[in-house]
Amino acid sequence: MVKRKRDIAPATATATPAAATEAVSTNTETTTSASATVHLQIVTGTYEKTLHGFIVNIPPPTSTPATGTTTSDDIALPATFTDTFLFAAHTSPLRTLAISPAGPNTKKRILATSSADERINLYTLSTRLPPVSSNSLLKPLSGRNRHLGTLHNHLNTPTSLIFTPNRNKFLSAGADGQIQILRTRDWGVLSTLKVPKPKAKPVNYVKDYGEGYGPRIDAFGSEGYGGGSGAVNDIALHPSQKILLSVGAGERAVRMWNLMTGRKAGVLAFGKEVLPPRIGKEGMRVEWAADGESYAVAFDRGVIVFGMDSKPRVRIETSGKSKIHMMRFVQVPKGLLGQETEEVLALSTEDGRMLFYSTTAEELDSPILLGTLGGRSMGMPGRVKDFIVMRAEGRIFVITAGSDGVVRVFDLCGEGSGIEVVEEDEAEGGAEKKAKTEGLEEKKGDRQVGKLVGMYETARRITCMTAMLMQEGGEEEQEDEEMGEAGEGEEEESSDEESDNDNE
Fold this sequence. Notes:
- A hairpin with a 2-residue loop joins strand 3 (71-72) and strand 4 (75-76).
- The protein is globular.
- The strands form 8 sheets. It has a 4-stranded antiparallel β-sheet with strand order 5-2-1-30, with no helix packed on it. It has a 4-stranded antiparallel β-sheet with strand order 6-7-8-9, with no helix packed on it.
- It has helices spanning 421-426, 430-437, 440-443, and strands at residues 38-46, 50-58, 71-72, 75-76, 80-88, 94-99, 109-115, 120-125, 146-151, 158-163, 169-174, 178-183, 188-194, 232-237, 243-248, 253-258, 263-269, 285-288, 294-299, 302-307, 312-317, 324-331, 343-349, 353-358, 369-374, 384-392, 395-402, 406-412, 450-457, 462-469.
- With 504 residues, the protein is mainly β.
């Protein structure tokens, strides 16, 4: 373990207590006032292999737009943006990002980044706003932020990164079929979970494959014939930190792992009655609800919400052929979107929309669409690769990032904040109004439920994004003493071997 200590002069700005509490897809208490400016640090990963950080400053709703604010179509937006860093972090496009919770002895956060170059880079990020004069754009992290090191635990692309709520452990999954559990104190490997390769598909020798040559067997490694490495697409940690879910390539199933024993706890295979082929062939994303009583699995063109009894509760299919890119459970005040519970399921799609669904439904195939953000009608035609939901100062912000390089910040304020189908219907009369109102129940979720407060063009194709809340003023904390340099200390590895043969 490496310990460093560094004296840093206090900032010139007046120290003000942090009045906001952050929540990213979790149920966290927030302040009810909306009298302060919100400062968010946003970090994006790109196809161009760069890591780009910038701070967005969102004034109170009653404030007038400041001079020099970002504009969209000649409409002034109140939020302002300030670049903090931009540098090449990997030798391949970035795959995913993760920011740790604040530690017990420091307010600094740990940023983990992964790429197809098989590396995981670790950095420390300060939560204190930098002085106005300091702009480290086009420079690597230095000074208040620094590079901790690099992890080389995977033999293929790391696909999912998770910090535990207490920040003591770090979980990473990869396309090499391994799930690594590390100790953040010295980044030693505590356990390794191995996902078996997909089972081989038997060849039908009776079927005529044409040309009189009998059955055709694809090359080794092709889908459906037992090839591949059992790549893990995504993992999700239960709120109790005792159970882990994973979904993998070539598997119509979700795996459950017991983290207390480090072994497989079970496999839930999806039949055609649960997972129709039109929705997808394998799980791409998996996410636990905040209460731990349900979880959702996202496929290419749909999502299924399961209870703890492994029975499907809600099945969602995207309209047309719109692909799902990201999925998260979001905590919003009850009734804000017309929902009966505090938790909603948010999805981002290929056609530039964000969809908010209720997590309960009377029937399996009757999901309730609560509202929509973006889409072609709102000038968002491109895919939404990633999104983050933040709660601060009694407000809820939805931050979206697209492969077009544009980051948009919305204030999620419920009905009345945008275009509503009801208003369009009331503008009509006679038979046209009657014809439209007949399908109003099905269309009411199409209303826009957020207000655009800021837009920033990064000029780079974004692949992933994360964010955290910043604080004004205050003295810089001491350098982390609890964190060791990654890749420089000895690693303790105790792999729990898993049999390649699953008895499902």
